[in-house]
Inverse folding.
């Protein structure tokens, strides 16, 4: 990480790759959650009688809803599979690539109508549809869980996670809303090439699915090639394997997973339901399907503005209030849709307000931070399992949306070759209730849930990480030792700062509580900190007051600047390295503001302690009270 320094080429590539990854990934989800059911209602059963096609539409709609609800129990198990994966490429990348390849193949089969099988045997069609759809959802979920699971694996820094999540959400805006812009032109163009008719036909829908599939595969490859899963003592200290029982325990015994998830579920239902019926609004209510692209353009422009703004706004506004502010904006949008939708300008304003939202960003970050929260409570670090919760919610809301869209299409006669001229006032009222009134109530409920029940703020997460550090220091929670018998190793630890050596027992906080762990401290006389040996920077705490470093011989240590400085949230700390960087003894790593630390009421001791105290066999040479200069030998360590 850097503060006030330019990003390295590797960091830029990593951010760009992760960002592009969600363009195709989000577009792919949009095809299945929104546009597949439109294809089902308008193109899949062309050539069949209206009575038969109506029954098949109802059948497919019901199957999609039922299958996806049942799969909610499967997703945590898929997260557990990812969590327990070990490969030379890490645990996420294999599933990102494999999940996308299988999903693309099955998606294209579905958009052929399973090769028109319904015309010959609708029973066999229904059976194969369930098998294909379930398999598709499983492999898509594996890729989705793995994509977002990369966030805590790329960095444990909450701010850096916010940047990656914002980039992913920004790209997701392009992928999701880009569909709204391209769907009608692509479907109509390829239908015209095949039939000579300017309409949305089955051939056009297949071409649309094929275009999105290509983008999805390119995006998956970008993530796998451009990002790197990192390891640090906090990640590695968690339980190595989790059982199925522990998977569900990780979710249901972590209140800061459940409440943010409920708030997001309410928001997501409102958002996806409304998005799912906007095409019908323009085609059957307004009677201008060719203008549907406006919805996508507005959403994309707003997404371009809101996603990059999130990490900037979050510096001044807590995540909770960004979530609530977005929901208030959505509520205002629904009032415009209900009372002023005949006015073109007001409708456009409503679309602007509808898309000013930070719910997904806030939820992903809160759930990501809940990983350490859960690790502190149970000792388990269920990265992919926890981050499988959001895809579960997306899948559920997609099912609800598909069910309602299918219901509206049938109840309001918006199927087959129907047009706006065929709509009655009853049809319009049916549409309004599903498109606006129900989602309005859901958006309001999400505000109350997040406001009253979500407690895991940025400050709370920093305190959780600090407590995990304390457990590591005291040996209560350390990385599982290797099963292989290890030889005794030796390492010399040199002074990271100028100052006076202090015994660990003499380092206390403002409440008189001693600093936990085994190591040594220095009362600094300078503001610069240097590497205590040749090694590699493993990670930096999100509050920038501490970092982990491993020597070339394998000794893991944490260097902690100040006592209580976690509450400074990084103010006054400036790093001169990037996580993962190889460093040499006495290389400048940090400068920090001692005066500011004291001004805030904290102690400025620099504490260097062992991340795995149980592996330490002998420490020689320490002399409390001795004055040292950075680079002076402090202790000789024997360890396994």
């Amino acid at each position: 990480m850097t503060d006030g320094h330019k990003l390295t080429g590797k960091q830029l590539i990593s951010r760009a790759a992760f960002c592009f990854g969600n363009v195709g990934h989000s577009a792919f989800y949009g095809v299945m959650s929104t546009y597949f059911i439109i294809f089902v209602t308008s193109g899949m059963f062309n050539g069949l009688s209206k009575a038969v096609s109506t029954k098949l539409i109802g059948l497919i709609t019901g199957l999609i809803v039922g299958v996806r609800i049942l799969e909610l129990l499967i997703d945590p198990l898929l997260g557990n599979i990812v969590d327990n994966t070990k490969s030379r490429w890490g645990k996420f990348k294999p599933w990102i690539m494999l999940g996308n390849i299988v999903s693309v193949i099955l998606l294209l089969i579905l958009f052929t109508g399973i090769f028109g099988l319904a015309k010959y045997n609708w029973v066999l069609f229904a059976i194969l549809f369930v098998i294909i759809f379930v398999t598709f959802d499983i492999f898509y979920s594996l890729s989705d869980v793995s994509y977002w699971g990369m966030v805590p694996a790329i960095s444990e820094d909450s701010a850096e996670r916010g940047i990656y999540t914002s980039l992913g959400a920004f790209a997701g805006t392009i992928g999701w809303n880009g569909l709204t812009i391209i769907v009608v032109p692509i479907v109509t163009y390829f239908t015209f090439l095949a039939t000579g008719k300017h309409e949305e036909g089955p051939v056009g829908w297949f071409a649309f699915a094929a275009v999105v599939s290509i983008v999805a595969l390119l995006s998956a490859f970008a993530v796998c090639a451009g990002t790197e899963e990192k390891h640090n003592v906090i990640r590695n200290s968690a339980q190595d394997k989790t059982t199925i029982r522990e998977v569900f325990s990780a979710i249901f015994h972590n209140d800061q997973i459940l409440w943010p998830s409920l708030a997001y579920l309410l928001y997501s239902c409102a958002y996806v339901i409304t998005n799912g019926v906007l095409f019908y609004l323009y085609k059957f209510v307004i009677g201008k399907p060719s203008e549907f692209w406006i919805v996508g353009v507005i959403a994309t422009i707003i997404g371009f503005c809101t996603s990059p703004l999130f990490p900037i706004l979050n510096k001044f506004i807590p995540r909770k209030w960004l979530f609530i502010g977005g929901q208030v904006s959505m509520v205002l949008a629904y009032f415009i849709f209900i009372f002023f939708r005949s006015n073109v300008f007001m409708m456009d304003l409503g679309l602007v307000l509808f898309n000013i939202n930070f719910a997904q960003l806030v939820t992903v970050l809160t759930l990501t931070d809940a990983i350490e929260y859960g690790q502190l409570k149970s000792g388990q670090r269920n990265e992919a399992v926890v981050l499988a919760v959001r895809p579960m919610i997306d899948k559920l809301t997609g099912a609800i949306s598909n069910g309602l869209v299918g219901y509206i299409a049938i109840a309001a006669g918006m199927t087959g070759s129907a047009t706006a001229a065929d709509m009655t006032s009853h049809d319009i009222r049916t549409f309004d209730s599903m498109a606006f009134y129900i989602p309005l109530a859901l958006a309001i409920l999400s505000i109350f849930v997040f406001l009253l029940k979500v407690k895991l703020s940025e400050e709370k997460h920093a305190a959780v990480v600090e407590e995990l550090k304390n457990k590591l220091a005291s040996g209560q929670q350390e990385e599982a030792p290797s099963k292989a018998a290890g030889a005794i190793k030796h390492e010399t630890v040199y002074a990271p700062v100028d100052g006076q050596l202090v015994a660990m027992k003499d380092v206390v906080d403002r409440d008189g509580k001693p600093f936990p762990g085994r190591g040594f401290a220095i009362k600094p006389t300078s503001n610069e900190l240097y590497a205590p040996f040749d090694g590699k920077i493993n990670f930096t705490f999100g509050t920038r007051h501490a970092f982990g470093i491993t020597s070339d011989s394998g000794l893991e240590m944490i260097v902690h600047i100040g006592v209580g400085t976690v509450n400074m949230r990084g103010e006054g700390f400036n790093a001169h390295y990037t996580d993962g960087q190889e460093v040499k003894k006495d290389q400048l790593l940090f400068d920090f503001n001692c005066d500011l630390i004291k001004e805030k009421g904290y102690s400025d001791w620099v504490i260097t302690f062992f991340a795995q105290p149980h592996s330490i066999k002998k420490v020689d040479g320490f002399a409390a009270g001795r004055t040292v200069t950075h680079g002076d030998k402090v202790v000789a360590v024997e360890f396994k």
